[in-house]
């Protein structure tokens, strides 16, 4: 249950940044998760995404963006 709550928290952070018109400009993967860098103008925010579900979630967002 803790993993699900962590996933929900990570998804909400990702959604918040996307709603504020940030875009994903870089992803670095390692054994501890992903570092996702969001950018809006001159501002950059790095988010450490640990859960597999949240990693799949932002990956799907990237695929959808590239399809449009």
Short description:
Helices cover 50% and strands 34% of the residues.
Task: Show the helix and strand layout.
Elements: H1 2-19, E1 23-30, E2 33-40, E3 43-49, H2 52-67
Antiparallel strand pairs: 1-2, 2-3
Helix pairs in contact: 1-2
What would your notes on this structure say?
The protein has helices at 2-19, 52-67, and strands at residues 23-30, 33-40, 43-49. The chain starts with a helix and ends with a helix. The protein has 2 helices and 3 strands, in the order H-E-E-E-H. The chain is globular and about 35 Å long. By secondary structure, it is an alpha+beta fold. It has one domain (2-67). The chain has a 3-stranded antiparallel sheet with strand order 1-2-3. The model has no long low-confidence stretch (mean pLDDT 94).
């Amino acid at each position: 249950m803790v993993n699900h709550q962590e996933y929900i928290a990570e998804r909400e952070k990702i959604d918040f940044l996307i709603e504020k018109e940030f875009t994903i400009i870089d992803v670095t993967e390692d054994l501890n998760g992903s570092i996702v860098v969001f950018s809006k103008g001159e501002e950059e925010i790095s988010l450490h995404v640990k859960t597999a579900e949240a990693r799949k979630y932002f990956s799907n967002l990237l695929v959808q963006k590239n399809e449009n």
